[in-house]
Amino acid sequence: MNPIQVGLLGIGTVGSGTFEVLRRNQEEIRRRAGRGIQIVAVSRRDTVAAQRIVGDAATVHADPFEIVRNPAIDIVVELIGGTTLARELVLEAISRGKHVVTANKALLAVHGSEIFAAARAKGVMVAFEAAVAGGIPIIKALREGLTANRIEWVAGIINGTTNFILSEMRSKGLDFAVVLKEAQRLGYAEADPTFDIEGVDAAHKATIMSAIAFGVPVQFSKAYVEGITGLQAADIRYAEQLGYRIKLLGITRRRDDLKSAAFPAGGIELRVHPTLIPSTRLIANVEGAMNAVVVNGDAVGSTLYYGKGAGSEPTASAVIADLVDVTRLHTADPEQRVPHLAFQPGELHDTPVLPISEVVTAFYLRLVVADKAGVLARITGILAESDISIDAVLQRESAEGEKQTDLIILTHNTVEGRMSAALAQMQALPTVLAPIVKIRKEELN
Q: pTM of the full predicted structure?
């Protein structure tokens, strides 16, 4: 059987890794796929650089539409990123009956519903393992490996840049701005790191995992997103003293307990933010630029997926796994293929994504307060009046100055809206001398 013909759009870091791994392991991949997989055309604006990578093994094009419109191409691999040109290329490839493999999480988080609908109409596949957590096969685990389970929640460290920064802040006691500069020097952070440090990249990935876990449309616009730019070394230190570590988590959780007139089908939490996790949890000990995802299902319990979330060959590993899957099912009846979002298209539910005010979680609070009698009693009194129970209290000398103290409070679970109202009361007290720090806390048990 002739090799399946692949067109590669973008041959930068991931594209060159894909080309190299496919070349290096071609015989092993052929044995798994049942036929050869051959990249016959690549596109890149810098055609000279592309030619140096592929030699005479593939044709090089400056215009990616030349590859998409080539009738000899069976599969288009989109690795150019962004949501504008990439969307046009992917939709045109689908309209011409070509399968698509992409690592573009932003594209799927924003335009996934449109793309999957177009693919179903043409009977082609869109594969996207590389879009979430690089080389970790989390999409296949959610979509196939855990298909017997009713997924309860998913929580993941899914951005290596922010995890590297938080790891360095914890181990070296440095502030955010200092570590960010070091991360940029080492190549862990981009010159413009906004998407990473503001949580947007993680939110794209969490949105995709949420859709697969719960059988809902991709709904990035409804995700709550909070980055790590406001984190201070003091809070990381205090969290450690209390037995916790702070990680930027992407969290999505089923909330059947919320069923009411306002939410007759319950709801789904979809959020990205810094989170305290008990230091005894395996995911709390994921350091550096590594990624990890915990999935909790009713039958299997909690399972952990760990590995490199970015990089040339780790991400290429996921791209090629998708190529193998598409090759195996290239001639199969489209109705017998695994659905894009795990659930049959007609079985997707429009379960609402909850506003952050309806989220239930515990909290870490740090208040800089006047060091005088009655302050702690007044603050704990406000929490009690708001029906918010306290898990632990820590009092330390403040770095802000004399006659001040840092008051650290851990709470039990409560509704975010209730906590926000209580914080407004506390912030208004004349004995609270600085903006209150609030970080959410998850036990993940």
A: 0.95
